[in-house]
Write a structure and sequence with these properties.
Radius of gyration: 17 Å
Strand order of the largest sheet: 3-2-1-4-5-6-7-8
Largest sheet: 8 strands, mixed
CATH superfamily: NAD(P)-binding Rossmann-like Domain
Number of helices: 7
Strand content: 15-25%
Distance between the termini: 30 Å
Mean pLDDT: 94
Helix content: 25-40%
Low-confidence stretches: none
CATH class: Alpha Beta
């Protein structure tokens, strides 16, 4: 495929690690970042890195992002919906955040970025996807219905919604042979995961990049460590 590889939330953590791995493979990577200036400085000598401003929680921002790629006459080989937030910090609650003490505003804001952001990106880039393009939605085991527990309702609900988006898009894009996947990267050492996490961002990004670069995988599946897992 000759199109670009779009990574949202590419300024740090899993997004940065995924973008780096794609760049090493020689892919033309578009890094979407809320604060693009430091990222542009970081990649100024990397001709296959394109850094653009992007806030997936903002409809105008996502549409402008798509229009820029249209103006540049780009096509999209893969979209990695990585941008995400975790707003329910335990120290802000009397115990574990749960449905009894849930702050509805935090749930709404989490959904805006984690779930609705993935939909906005699909709509913004829909005219640009190549036949057989891949969409990788970064989800979490915390969104698995088969192993659902209590606590952190905003994050859990948002990732369950991401998985639903994956299943819906897999059906709606089947006529274009697109491969749509959800992926759990595991507990990673990022700003979201914290220093105590059990794996590096690079390890977490491995399956994300694998899904974005392979065309021989089934669509509409949930993955971890390159293996299918239950919804």
């Amino acid at each position: 495929m000759s199109g670009v590889y779009v990574v949202t939330g590419a300024n740090r953590g899993l997004g940065r690690a995924a973008a780096e791995q794609l760049l090493i493979q020689g892919k033309l990577v578009v890094l979407g970042c809320r604060e693009p200036e430091p990222v542009q400085a970081r990649y100024k000598n990397r001709p296959n890195a394109i850094v653009l401003p992007l806030d997936v929680s903002d409809e105008l921002s996502t549409m402008h992002f798509g229009h820029v790629l249209i103006q540049q006459q780009r096509t999209v080989a893969a979209l990695i919906n990585n941008a995400g937030v975790f707003l329910e910090h335990s120290e802000d609650f009397a115990g574990t955040p749960n449905l009894a003490n849930a702050e509805m505003d935090l749930i709404r804001r989490t959904m805006e970025t984690n779930a609705y952001g993935a939909i906005r990106m699909y709509q913004a880039l829909n005219p640009l996807f190549e036949h057989g393009a891949r969409i990788v939605n970064v989800s979490s085991g915390m969104g698995q219905l088969s192993e659902m527990n209590g606590g952190w309702p905003g994050y859990r609900l948002s990732k369950t919604a991401v998985n639903a988006v994956t299943r819906m898009l897999a059906e709606e894009t089947s006529d274009r042979a697109m491969i749509v996947s959800s992926v759990c990267p595991g507990w990673c050492q990022t700003d979201m995961g914290g220093a105590a996490a059990t794996r590096t961002a690079e390890q977490g990004a491995d399956t994300i990049v694998w899904l974005a670069t392979h065309s021989d995988l089934p669509s509409g599946k949930f993955w971890r460590d390159r293996k299918e897992i239950a919804w």
